[in-house]
Specification:
single chain; alpha+beta; 2 helices; 23% helix
Amino acid sequence: DLEGIDEFATDEENLDMYLRVHGKPTAQFMRQIADKTLLVGLGSTVFREAKYTSHEVIIDDAQIAWFERTLEEHPSADGWKIFVFTHAPPIGSGLRVLQHNHVVNGCC
């Protein structure tokens, strides 16, 4: 259970454990995978405090600021390509279903 609903009292405790166990300094990451090509990952930081369901992907303001800086520092005008990954479409993206890949988990 990645959300840690039963294991942790708060989202902060859950996130601290996740980062520590995986040796990550932050929930997000960036790797240059080819010439002028980045792989960027954004991670949800809210589970039990989510408005609708613990399965929402909520990207916090710190990650958004980091992501915006990453885009500014690697402009497409200079030939940069950036692939962005999250576990599911982030809240606010407007995407509710990815064609042919909709997982129904009973709380969506």
